[in-house]
Design brief:
Length: 386
């Protein structure tokens, strides 16, 4: 919710954005290794204060302080916590302040979802782990960064995805109750091992450990879509979006559930709503794909252009669009450029297959897909619904 820092929006407008009845407002002050949190709970409808309190601790105890604040608010609004939720609130270890700061810096860089920023995130997470080798959450975050690199940075899956699995397993070894660890393992199992049953087991366990883990629900929705379980995927994606309506990644997975279900009108509506909440480059790419399926080729081209830069995915999308819309020479130029580029650096084979399909070059497309299969190209898992 850092997007609301310094905002001119009213509390009622913010609550509407977040679909929330009540809003926690507060401040954090740090002096050396001391941190002070002042928090207040406000009713969005009546603009009345329901609860306020201040806490001061050593920075190494900041995680337990977060749990204490959450527990106090839960009691104030009379939420009945389950035994597992109560256990989670009481389950927080001290953390090295420098490691915690490195972890937060990593989250910042991770949120951009581009290759360069993901590499910066990895460096920060590795720094956190060096400072605090028992920091399970840093291992889970490291796994997330590793598995996004091939998708959002055109990196070699064979280099990064085994490390994603290894880091997730380490997170679970350090803290078996860490929802983020099981979610990271689920992603690795699905993306690299193509072990759908194992991925589903881990996603369900992650959600059981933390029902409000929006990211776990969002990626579980994607996995359900890839198996053709569209009604389940839409329900899970909708719940994820309710939990975190301004996350670009969550909005992406929610919107894609309609695209993969071939409900293009709802997909367009969902992508537009998502872009109003979060300016996130993959949203433009997939909105372009929806427009292409609707035959709105100029609109599709505009969206693919907006998605250009972080990876070559949008370039391959343009190549496919040009192929199916009769602009053959332009499609062939993109195919030639990417083929030449693939000889000097890694280009996901599915990108080239996508253009070949647009050109009607089926044998070439299949050859690139066979190469993608052999290399565990991260985009291969979408073959069943693309």
């Amino acid at each position: 919710t850092m997007r609301y820092k310094g905002t001119k929006k009213s509390l009622q407008e913010i609550a509407k954005d977040l679909d929330a009845d009540t809003v926690i407002e507060g401040s954090v002050e740090r002096s050396g290794d001391q941190v002070r949190i002042t928090a207040q709970l406000i009713s969005a409808n009546t603009d009345t204060h329901l609860w306020a309190r201040s806490y001061q601790r050593e920075l190494r105890d900041v995680l337990s302080m977060q749990s204490e604040v959450a527990r106090a608010i839960a009691a104030e609004i009379q939420v009945q916590l389950t035994p597992r939720e109560q256990e989670r609130f009481g389950h927080s270890r001290p953390v090295d302040p420098a490691a915690y700061e490195a972890y937060l810096q990593g989250r910042y860089h991770w949120s951009f979802h581009t290759g360069d920023e993901l590499q910066k995130a990895i460096a920060e997470y590795q720094s956190a782990i060096r400072l605090d080798p028992g920091y399970a959450l840093a291992y889970a975050a490291l796994s997330e960064a590793y598995h996004l690199l091939p998708l959002n940075g055109d990196a070699e899956p064979g280099k990064w995805l085994p490390q994603a699995k290894e880091s997730a397993l380490k997170a679970i070894e350090l803290d078996p109750q860490l929802s983020e660890g099981h979610s990271a393992l689920a992603f690795a199992l699905g993306q690299y091992d193509w072990d759908w049953a194992g991925a589903e087991r881990e996603f369900k366990h992650a959600i059981e450990l933390s029902p409000s883990n929006a990211a776990a629900r969002a990626f579980y929705a994607q996995m359900l879509s890839l198996q053709g379980r569209h009604a389940e995927a839409i329900a899970e994606g909708t719940r994820a979006r309710e939990l975190d309506p301004i996350s670009g990644q969550v909005c992406l997975q929610y919107s894609r559930t309609f695209f993969y279900a071939r409900d293009y009108d709802r997909a367009v509506e969902a992508f537009r709503q998502s872009l109003a909440k979060a300016e996130f480059w993959p949203l433009h790419f997939f909105l372009g794909q929806v427009y292409e399926q609707q035959g709105l080729f100029p609109d599709a081209a505009v969206q693919f252009q907006k998605a250009q830069g972080p990876t070559l995915l949008a370039t391959s999308g343009l190549g496919h669009l040009y192929g199916v819309s009769g602009r053959r020479a332009e499609a062939e130029k993109i195919l030639s450029d990417l083929t030449l580029r693939s000889k000097a650096s890694y280009v996901p084979p599915t990108y080239l297959a996508r253009i070949c399909v647009g050109l009607g070059e089926r044998d070439q497309a299949l050859a690139w897909l066979e190469k993608g299969y052999a290399e565990h190209d991260s985009h291969m898992e979408f073959m069943g619904v693309e």
